[in-house]
Design brief:
The protein is of the alpha+beta class. The protein is built from 2 helices and 6 strands, in the order E-H-E-E-E-E-H-E.
Length: about 90
Amino acid sequence: MGMPDASSVELVYEGGPRGLAALVQALRDEGLEVSYEPPIEERSGGMAQEVVVMLVVSAVGTVTKALTAKALEQLRARWPGIKVRGKHEKL
């Protein structure tokens, strides 16, 4: 994963793999480019464990933050309790 530039937003996701997939899809549906290292999925008793993943979201121009905020708002409406924050923010 490359270094973010001025038109990038860094997010940290904490949760299960399904929530991560929903987050990435929501961001991409807004036309954003998402880069991240997919976690190695470990299971305990048939249940997927929580993962922590840093994502870099980018777009052409300066619309990245607005589109990211829109995607997160829509995702939080569908996935109450999903844990996503800016890289330097606390949950």
